[in-house]
Design a protein that fits this description.
The complex is a heterodimer.
Chain A lengths: L2 H32 L5 H7 L2 H34 L5 H8 L1 H4 L2 H12 L6 H6 L8 H12 L1 H14 L2 H8 L4 H30 L2 H7 L9 H10 L3 H30 L1
Chain B lengths: L2 E10 L2 E11 L4 E5 L6 H9 L6 E6 L2 E2 L10 E4 L11 H11 L4 H14 L15 H14 L4 E5 L7 H18 L2 E6 L2 H7 L2 E6 L2 E6 L1 H6 L4 H6 L4 E3 L2 E3 L4 E4 L7 E11 L2 E8 L4 E7 H7 L6 E6 L3 E2 L30
Parallel strand pairs in B: 3-8, 3-9, 6-7, 7-8
Antiparallel strand pairs in B: 1-2, 1-4, 4-5, 9-10, 11-12, 12-18, 13-17, 14-15, 14-17, 15-16
Classes of the chains: A mainly alpha, B alpha+beta.
Amino acid sequence: MTATATSRWGLRVLGLGYVFLLLLLPLGLIFYKTFEHGIAPPLDAITSPDGLHALKLTLITVAIAVPLNTVFGIGCALLLVRHKWRFNFLVDAVINLPFAISPIVIGLSLFLLYGTDGWFGPTFAEAGIKILFSVPGMVLACIFVSLPFVVRETVPVLQEIGTEQEQAASTLGANAWQTFWRVTLPAIRWGVAYGVVLTTARVLGEFGAVSIVSGSISGQTQTLPLFVAKQYENFNLPGAFGASVLLALLALTTLLAMNLLKRKEDA
Amino acid sequence: MGISVEGADKRFGDFQALKDVSIEVPDGSLTALLGPSGSGKSTLLRAIAGLEALDSGRVLIEGEDVSKKPTQKREVGFVFQHYAAFKHMTVYENVGFGLKIRKQDKAQISKRVHELLDLVQLEGLADRYPSQLSGGQRQRMALARALAVEPQVLLLDEPFGALDAKVRKDLRTWLRRLHEEMHVTTIFVTHDQEEAMDVAGQLVVMNEGRVEQSGSADELYEHPANEFVMSFVGEVNQLGDHFVRPHDMEVVLDPDERTQEGLVQRIVTLGFEVRVELVLSDGTEVWAQLTRAELQRLELREGQIAYLRPVQAKSFNGTSPSHPRGASTPHGSHDGGDAEVPAAV
């Protein structure tokens, strides 16, 4: 074996070992622990009323937060890339805030805003809308923490495709709306799709901000990650592991769905 | 009719791309905007299409002021240097794009697209994606796409700039023939004077945001308005205040009162043409274009002394290339012109 081959194998072992020890082993252990005593205990935990409610609530937050952030993300990326403005750099920095701020802090800030003594709290209370300790607050928290993904993934793709195709479309008679749907969006679709997958994964797994604003009330304001934590605190390990596996499967399905779509397109 | 631009000004930050530019493009003509990079020719073309907004001035297409109209309503066909192909669409979908936008029915679109693919010789490639085409094929697709909507005018921005020399020559000939068939008013931008003269009936020479001169290739070559035009549309030697084309330099072996002495530095044979490079007594480097027969008759050798007799020379009376007096005068005004040369004709 030559020196380069040796070092190549060395690097490979090192890299794979790192991934295995830090990523695959813990995840694998959860799967193992979940099904250690058969499929019944985790299944019972998930199909309990609280478990099913947590699943439903998680899917609801995804169904609201992801489309909103997708539309916002694409619009924001278009503004940042296609419209020169002096303060674009500020907008760009502000969009990254959710990456920089701990989710717990985000949860607390929502508390200050929508709590009984908060700025908007009393207004919504008068209107009979409950934000904190209910679904709207949880969705707000999820939107906040997952806001940057679509923007971040779309901006570089928009920059790369340039404006010539859009200009060509306009010379051919397409208005701004037609140009967006027929030319721009198809050209950036994989950037957007990747952003959507990341957003979905983030919303599925969000814990910190949601745990603050939801109060984590079983069967009412518990998403799957909160359900996992509760089961764990109550020493219901099969329940905790079962819900964990369900979460992991949801995230994996999202990733897989995108890869399949992309493969189908490339074929 | 055709296209006219009146008093166009355009500034990009500190850079003035167009300075009071006016041009007149006759209906049905094929006109070249010729100039070095940064001369404003592309900006002018884009302004006609509405892809750039003018700071002041007007654009008229077929007599109608379109200055306030957005691009999509100007009915221009535009071809970009780098094709601007819709990468996610097939050749068929690319060419049919404008028709689909106009909500024509499928049968009509199909008929028109196939006619055009036939015209640009891409019949068999309708289902390919742009990434599967060569540069020349992509540009023909882009042309078919622009023509599909039957535009009032066709605008081409350095259409052959990204192609290699051979393909470029073929497409040039092909564009000229296409124009003869279609007769749509066409403007194309190029920095290549040979290309401009080969393809276009009418040329507009631009420099530093101004129109230096416009006219036919012959007019520009024979009666350039200034030194810039003279040197841009052909080779030129400078002898004091006078400018002489290399083929207007006669080389003789016997001096007389109209010749200048020069030392033959280099003789380059380029097929039929021979390039003789000389240094004059004042250090000026010039070259003369001879035929092989002339060279053989003179028996010239490198390092010998020979005598130059300018057959025809021009002087522009102190006009400098960057600030010519004749700027922005549409339709070949010949304010330079032939002049008496003290030591010649």
